[in-house]
Design a protein that fits this description.
about 70 residues; alpha+beta
Length: about 70
């Protein structure tokens, strides 16, 4: 599929990405999220069912499998 960004000549390809969500002061990081990524500009498309699944994981408040430090840019 052609990239949806105006003027970008790229095409979307299936990849697994790291997706970050910030809810209030909480930062959530999801690894291995299926996405379509433009091979030129790196625009990312998430399918509706992927978004619903991520929202379900957030609502369930499952225990994370890893913990990562977060630094403030100052």
């Amino acid at each position: 599929m052609n990239c949806s960004i105006q003027g970008c000549p790229g095409h979307y390809e299936h990849r697994l990405i790291v997706h970050t969500v910030k809810r209030g002061e909480t930062v959530l990081i999801f690894e291995n999220v299926p996405a379509e990524v433009c091979d030129v500009c790196s625009d990312i498309l998430l399918a509706p069912e992927i978004i619903r699944h991520l929202e379900k994981l957030i609502e369930q408040r499952a225990e994370p499998i890893k913990h990562a430090p977060v630094y403030a840019y100052a």
